[in-house]
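Data availability (excerpt). The following record was deposited with the supplementary files.
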Amino acid sequence: MEEGGDAMETHTTYEEYLDSQITDTDMYYLESEDLARQLVELGYRGSGDTLKREEFEARKKALRERSTQKTNVPKQLSSHGRDLSDSPLLLALANREELVRNGKLTTIIFIRNKNAKKQEVSGYIDYALRLKTENFEPYFEKRKKLMPKPSDLSYYNWETQTSTSNSTPNFQVIADNETGLLFKNKRDRKVINVDPNANPGDNSTRTEIKTTEYLQVVIYDHM
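Predicted structure:
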């Protein structure tokens, strides 16, 4: 017989729990589901150690509460406990990680650098999407270098002239002939202008990151 936690997780109701201990032979002789359930509850069927309805409900409630507590435990930040004082970009990303994960801040990271083939590439990265779809610990542990990908918001290889753009759950890519590349925040519909000579837009800020690790890094924050 299923007992304890197994029974709680397997059976949604007390009736289902009782039914799990009724055999085809029981039904053949008793010809009544209600009577079969009563016999199981009284201990005449199954293992003879059947939970009473009150016990079943109490354990079910305790299981739900434990599950809720596990769900509410905040996930530890990938940057937690890292010494990033020698990496301006990683330090800036660590400072934003919790806000971005909580949805209180959206951030676009512009990176221009040489790839493994020594080709100059650049791109705009949706930080929230990368955090959701990638394990960032290797980046914060400095075992892996954050670089733009063709799957990011925007990507350009200056040598091969390969260009891609992809809207994400957070931003819509707008390629405007006059103003250049724009990103529209899907939540509040505000537009972020990444032209360094223009205002980045309402509720947006542009921060140039001074670093020797990359050719150029700019962070756009949108509250």
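Summary of structural features: Helices lie at 4-10, 14-19, 24-30, 33-41, 53-72, 88-101, 127-133, 137-140.
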